[in-house]
Amino acid sequence: MRQILSATALGLVLAAGAPNAIHAQQTHQAAGDPELNFDYRQVTVAEGLEHPWAIAWLPDGTALVTERPGRLRAIRNGRLDPQPIGGVPPVLVAPERGLVFQAGLFEVSPHPNFAQNNLLYFTYAHGTPQENRTRLARATFDGRTLSNLQVLFEVSQTKPDFQHYGGRLLWLPDGTLLMSVGDGGNPPVAVEGGLSRLQAQRPESHIGKILRLRDDGTPAPDNPFAGRAGARPEVFSIGHRHIQGLARHPDGRIFASEHGPLGGDELNLIRPGQNYGWPVVTWAGTMPAVRRSGRGSARPRAWWTRSWSGSLR
Predict the structure, then answer these.
(1) Rg of the chain's alpha carbons, rounded to an integer?
(2) pLDDT level of residue 22 (50, 70, 90 thresholds)
(3) Residue 124 and residue 148: Cα distance in Å, rounded?
(4) Residue 25: count of CB within 10 angstroms of its CB
(5) Is residue 164 flagged as an active site residue?
């Protein structure tokens, strides 16, 4: 079942068409890392989903899949339930406009003690086209519908347009929750009079960050920026563009995949308090004026550069 989303992503790339096709792609690695393994195969598990975004497994083997327009679907015993799960929070859904149709329902993630408390966690876009942000909520799931919906957290600033929400969740062994927040969008998207992406370097903003929360949405008390004047206590790491992949290695390391601007996609090893550079430091070949290294900035473990014909807007 883990192939559902990867197959969808590949389909989106192929659907881009000849004018926007990738002509070349290069993969780069940090010195000393083992060779990357890109050996995988695609297996069709379910069909009929509309822009699936996330998948999560329950203890009974049910797979829950979010659809961007705001539906939660269940795959039971290898079959997609035709009836969406009720009680999903209302979400802001963007019109499909080129590749910019990113708002909607994002993550679904069961609480580590789901077998006892039946709690599901969600991230989604909330607000209006002119003022919106990423939200975190939780609800009780009885196997068919959601109830007792609670909004636990929302990003500190609103933004216009429908870009770069982040929204990925990852539970840690101590019961805290990591949540990615995107940089808000490409220019000319602005927050408080300046480009939204500049917020990624400001600890006083949630934008362009990884946050660490307790399961009730409050900041983990031992976060690296806790007690720092002006900084948001939820901030775990800064300088991110648009993280839509978070995973924990069996040895405890945390990795994040981060979208670059038409090149410069990154795989980062996430450490508390670290600055990952964006938008001051990037490996994006489309931004030649930006430095590819910087004092105090973490270097990605792997990065991808691409050359394109035509343009994507």
Answers:
(1) 19
(2) very low
(3) 17
(4) 11
(5) yes
